[in-house]
Amino acid sequence: MPLAAYDLTGRSAFVTGAAGGIGRATAVLLAEAGAAVHCADLDEKGLRETLELITAAGGEAHLHPLDVTDRNRVRAAVAAAGDLDVLAAVAGIMHSSTVLETADEDLDRVLAVNFKGVLYACQEVARTLVARGAPGSLITMASGAVDSAGPGLLCYSAAKAAVVQLTKTLATELGPHGIRVNAVAPGWIRTPMTARHDSEQQHRAEATMARVAPLGRVGEPDEVAHTVLHLASDASSFMTGQILRPNGGVAMPW
Ligand SMILES: NC(=O)c1ccc[n+]([C@@H]2O[C@H](COP(=O)([O-])OP(=O)(O)OC[C@H]3O[C@@H](n4cnc5c(N)ncnc54)[C@H](O)[C@@H]3O)[C@@H](O)[C@H]2O)c1
Which residue's alpha carbon is nearest to atom 7 within ligand 1? Predict the structure, then answer.
């Protein structure tokens, strides 16, 4: 497949969580590949920094400050963005509490951001694609947490498992419309999210990755963004309903 398959010139992408970490790396890379990028996030300062990075590199970016759990705001932003071709639903939060200590409000917030926020963005973008009769690519952000269990991770991993089911279900429903839907399930990536863990947890994660990951290290946001670019572009034109795992090889079955 020629490299032109990765060229997104003339396409338009909506990226949630674009103010930092993996979402910012994704927005910057999709813009570098030629897409006009619509950046959505709660964090307005972070969004402006992303815009500066994209415009400084000669790309096109538009900002949509919003909370992904607010369906009306998501719908309005998608409508304002005009004809979209790509969605990268990256926004998410981490939460850790044991099952016995989990409060209703923690569960509700994590499901709202990490699952409903992805659902709303997929629904709103997919409806416009179907109405236009246009092909497109929707990319959701799951996590390596869907492949394993660990203390404290119920809310997060349950929400991410729901994202995987959403992705597979949508892939079956939207395939006949020429719309592809795939998930990315990263391993431990160095971002503001993981930097918020205390230093002992970070050390433990790095030591674990050094031991169990064939590549022996944690990942960088850009390495996940390249997986998203693959799924956003024609290079993955025969892929839908898949989960791609940029994770250093951790989940390899041996
Ligand atoms: N970093 C990792 O190791 C890792 C691993 C697996 C999966 N992920 C997933 O990748 C995604 C990005 O993670 P990250 O590490 O870049 O996190 P991050 O905290 O660095 O970035 C998340 C972004 O989402 C935004 N956001 C949070 N809640 C929002 C809301 N309600 N509405 C709009 N924006 C909101 C934040 O403002 C932030 O800019 C998340 O879905 C996360 O679960 C991360």
Answer: 143
Question: pLDDT value at position 1?
Answer: 52
Confidence at residue 254, expressed as pLDDT on a 0 to 100 scale: 43
Q: Which residues contact 123 (CB under 8 A, 6 or more apart)?
A: none
CA of 75 to the centre of ligand 1 (A): 20
CA 129 to chain centre: 19
Element (H, E) at 179: strand 179-184
Cα–Cα distance measured from residue 209 to residue 16, given in angstroms and rounded to the nearest whole number:
27
Fold adopted by 3-244: Rossmann fold (3.40.50)
What does the alpha-carbon distance between residue 166 and residue 152 come to, in Å, rounded to a whole number?
23
Domain edges within the chain: 3-244
Round to whole Å and give the CA distance between 252 and 254. 6
